[in-house]
Fold:
Amino acid sequence: MKKSLTFLQNPIIAALLGILLTFAFAPYQLFPLAILAPAGLLGLWLQVGSSPKKAFLLGYCFGLGLFGAGVYWVFTSIHVFGGVSAPFAVFITIGMITFLSLYPAFVGYLLTRYFPYDQTSKILYAFPAIWVISEWVRGWLFTGFPWLFLGYS
Structure:
């Protein structure tokens, strides 16, 4: 029972860390959260060991929390200013959030797939490098959505 409970807790913790990260940005500007929230996610990834599938799930949940709480305003832009019906604006917004959540998910996957051992190089070099590359790709590829970059906090 304890193992299944942990399996359910970790994705919830990951999503809460993603939500927490949004407070690092304006108007709250609690910039230490830009370090603490990703560090907490890294801790969860280190906890799952070398399982890329579990790391992908945790990263996806983190992304759902981050983008779900951080880009809610897209609905208003689409519905109010774009004149799109509310149900379709919800559909577009949810689709965008679920797509953007793939970026932190792939960070977790790549980190645990190609750096399976908990070494100093994984924590100090691989994690920050993969994270920055994923943010750069998110800003240029497919979506071109540069909001919620850690550097903006």
The mean pLDDT is 91. Residues 2-152 form one domain. The CA atoms of residues 13 and 65 lie 10 Å apart.
